[in-house]
Design a protein that fits this description.
Number of helices: 1
Strand content: over 45%
Number of strands: 13
Shape: globular
Structural class: mainly beta
Oligomer: single chain
Distance between the termini: 16 Å
Largest sheet: 7 strands, antiparallel
Length: 173
């Protein structure tokens, strides 16, 4: 008999904008436990896949650099799944839309389970400058037997804000 896996949302998307991130050190874009959770034992099968889609608005006072770092765990101290290269921010902008997408796949399970992920971030800047960043590609260990999640770390070198307006997190199988 064939396996029957069903796609499912693991968390409800926020019904209002999330808190804007204004820090210039790595900061989580949202609570992983709330919006990108992995329930205990849910990832305890090699080949399990998750999909993240998120978007919102961002504003910058000037040009700087930004880095996006996905992490296998609930904080920005968790193991990295591979940071983007530092990208030049779009300069002085107000309420520019952004979109992010990422796929995570479980490779091994247990107390030293592994996950690999890749994704991308896209925004428009001025008429001549678009910002895109690819991230991921690094295998990270995490415990698949306990509740965990995926944290998206955001590092911006200049004054600015990013406001997540929606986050969707799905188990693909």
């Amino acid at each position: 008999m064939a396996r029957q896996y069903f796609m499912d949302m693991l968390a409800e998307p926020p019904l209002a904008n999330l808190t804007a991130v204004t820090a210039t050190s790595e900061t989580a874009l949202w609570s992983a436990a709330t919006y990108t959770p992995i329930p205990a034992l849910d990832a305890n099968r090699p080949g399990k896949a998750y999909m993240l889609k998120a978007g919102g608005i961002m504003s910058f006072a000037s040009t700087g650099s930004l880095t996006i770092t996905p992490r296998a765990g609930l904080t920005v101290a968790a193991n990295t799944l591979g940071a983007s290269s530092a990208r030049t921010s779009p300069g002085a902008t107000t309420n520019q839309p952004w979109f992010m997408e990422m796929i995570c796949v479980i490779r091994t399970t247990g107390t030293s389970g592994t996950m690999v992920a890749t994704g991308g971030f896209q925004t428009n800047g001025t008429a001549t400058l678009d910002v895109s960043a690819s991230f991921g590609g690094t295998s990270a260990t995490f415990d698949t037997t306990v509740a965990s999640g995926v944290t998206i770390g955001w590092t911006l070198s200049v004054a600015g804000t990013i406001t997540p307006m929606f986050v969707t997190w799905q188990a693909m199988n």
